[in-house]
Design a protein that fits this description.
InterPro entries: HATPase_C_sf, HATPase_dom, His_kinase_dom, PAS, PAS-like_dom_sf, PAS_fold, sCache_3, Sensor-like_sf. One of its GO terms (molecular function) is ATP binding. Its main location: membrane. Its EC number is 2.7.13.3. The chain has 537 residues and is α+β, with helices and mostly antiparallel strands. It has three domains: 154 residues, 2-Layer Sandwich (Beta-Lactamase), CATH 3.30.450.20; 95 residues, PAS domain (Beta-Lactamase, 2-Layer Sandwich), CATH 3.30.450; 213 residues, 2-Layer Sandwich (Heat Shock Protein 90), CATH 3.30.565. It is built from 14 helices and 14 strands. Strands 6-5-9-8-7 form a five-stranded antiparallel sheet. A hairpin with a 2-residue loop joins strand 8 and strand 9. Helix 9 crosses helix 12 and helix 10 crosses helix 11. The longest helix has 48 residues. The two termini are 77 Å apart.
């Protein structure tokens, strides 16, 4: 309610507080100026009284009158004339003993002066504030000398009522200045409160507190990374998950995105720049960092038609991509086993038919040759690849390649100890390179072949995958590891080689590519991966 200040909006509370503060300050200022003005007027009247008293005391007419039998008859008109001419409240001439010769009230002539006279009798001029017959007054007392002897005293004063009248004449100007100051300050406070109301949307402090608490709780608890980037490309907000996914610290908030150590494609997603449309959006775009596969969504933020910046959400799909790769490998193995089962059934059927036709020796020769070929491949892979997951992957890929008309060959000796390299990284590298090699070989002339080899050399595992497909152009080699690059004519996503490059970089390895035009029986493109062995096998 309006009478409950706790429910007022922050703008209204600030307006009320500042208005009260301005009112108090202006009131104190006016009062201070009034006090100072009264002091100044009092000091001026004191100096004026001292000057008038000194002038009267030095007047030859006063000395001449004092020698007369009745000094009051001469001095009274003279004192009243001086009083009216100078505007003081009284001019009193008295004996050294304080008996008045003159006074504005003739009835008081001959009576004793109310006030101190001892310093003047001693020959010194002085001033004081004293309550006399005319009330409180500011007065000066000056001795009248005749040949060095004090023969009389002159007291000139201005009553405090007269001082008050002088001060009151200054009051309208002071009040006008104070009122003008109050109006100007009030207008400034009102404008400030309006601006504050727009910025706080008319919410009260409790509402702002609750909003901040909810906002902070959501930022810290949300499972997605949340970033807010302003129009200038400066990172204004990043929640805990967003900083974790991008490898940022709290100190990075408030810095331009271009100053952060992030991959160029990801920077382009976070800050589209002025060349992009104000409503440019991204929906579920995968991006690779050194450690993760992120899915990026970006939307423009507008308020009352004005572009404020962009809000970006990040989801970590690293585990999902790895699990998808493992699932793909498992499906490939299942397909390979199904193909092998189908081929085995065909071969068994051929053997049985040969036996039924009485061709026993030919049936035995056929079965022995097929068994030897399969056993040779298995022995070659299992014997050199002591990492079970990779061995299973290669056997499955060999069956898959054979079914698609590509020979998966192992011309080099295999030497892959178990545990030498992280199994996930190794499966990612070899599996995607073999898949890429099979796809490339299918686009080349026959015979189509993919060669795979891996050996330990001085604490490094060197993996080689080559294919007989078309040679890569220099332009392709420059951008082949970027997400989205593909040579497929269909719906390829172009993520395999990007994942390979990410896994190699994460493991601290190096990948090189050589490609050239080759003959029908020679490989044209070779991928060589050099990975450090993480522990002694």
């Amino acid at each position: 309610m309006w009478w409950d200040p706790r429910r007022w909006s922050l703008a209204r509370q600030v307006f009320a507080l500042l208005t009260a503060a301005v009112l108090v300050l202006v009131t104190v200022a006016v009062a201070t100026v009034l006090v100072q003005t009264r002091r100044t007027v009092t000091d001026a009247k004191r100096d004026e009284a001292l000057a008038v008293a000194g002038s009267v005391a030095q007047s030859p007419d006063v000395l001449a009158a004092l020698r007369e039998p009745d000094p009051s008859a001469v001095l009274q008109p003279y004192a009243e004339a001086v009083r009216r001419r100078t505007g003081v409240s009284f001019v009193t001439i008295m004996t050294p003993a304080g008996i008045r010769y003159t006074h504005p009230n003739p009835n008081l002539i001959g009576q004793r002066f109310f006030g101190h006279t001892a310093p003047a009798v001693a020959g010194r001029d002085f001033t004081e504030t004293y309550t006399g017959s005319l009330g409180p007054s500011v007065r000066a007392v000056v001795p009248v000398r005749d040949g060095g002897r004090v023969v009389a005293l002159v007291s000139v004063g201005v009553t405090t009522r007269a001082v008050g009248r002088e001060v009151r004449r200054e009051v309208p100007a002071l009040l006008a200045a104070g009122g003008l100051t109050l109006v100007v300050a009030g207008a400034g406070v009102w404008l400030l409160s309006r601006r504050l109301r727009r910025q706080t949307h008319g919410m009260s402090p409790p509402e702002l507190t609750r909003l901040f608490e909810f906002y902070d709780a959501v930022l810290h608890s949300v499972r997605e990374g949340l970033l807010i980037v302003d129009r200038d490309g400066t990172l204004r907000l990043a929640n805990d998950e967003g900083r974790r996914l991008l490898g940022l610290s709290e100190a990075d908030v408030g810095r331009p995105l271009r100053a952060l150590d992030l991959p160029a494609p990801l920077l382009a997603d976070l800050d589209p720049g002025p060349e992009a449309g104000p409503d440019a959006e991204l929906i579920d775009v995968p991006r690779l960092t050194d450690e993760r596969v992120l899915v990026v969504n970006r939307a423009a933020v507008r308020w009352q038609g004005r572009l404020l910046g962009h809000v970006v959400t990040l989801r970590d799909h690293t585990d999902l991509v790895q699990l998808s790769g493992e699932l793909s490998t498992t499906r490939g193995l299942a397909e390979a086993l199904r193909s092998q089962a189908h081929e085995a059934a065909n071969r068994l059927h051929s053997v049985i038919t040969l036996v039924e036709l009485g061709q026993t020796e030919r049936a035995l020769e056929f079965a022995t040759r097929e068994l030897a070929a399969a056993q040779e491949l298995t022995d070659q892979v299992v014997g050199g690849v002591r990492q079970p997951v990779l061995a299973a992957l290669l056997l499955g890929k060999a069956a898959e390649a054979g079914e698609r008309g590509v020979t998966l060959a192992f011309p080099d000796e295999f030497d892959v100890p178990d545990g030498a390299v992280d199994a996930r990284d190794l499966v990612t590298v070899v599996g995607n390179l073999v898949d890429n090699g099979i796809e490339a070989a299918l686009r080349g002339p026959g015979p189509r072949r993919v060669e795979v080899g891996a050996q330990l050399d001085d604490g490094r595992l060197r993996v080689r995958v080559a294919n007989t497909g078309p040679a890569l152009t220099p332009q392709d080699q420059d951008r082949m590891f970027a997400r989205g690059w593909t040579t497929k004519d269909g719906d390829g996503h172009g993520l395999g080689l990007a994942l390979v490059e990410q896994a190699v970089r994460r493991a601290g390895g190096v990948i090189t590519v050589t490609s050239h035009e080759a003959g029908a029986d020679d490989v044209s493109t070779t991928f060589e991966v050099d990975l450090p062995v993480r522990s002694a096998p």
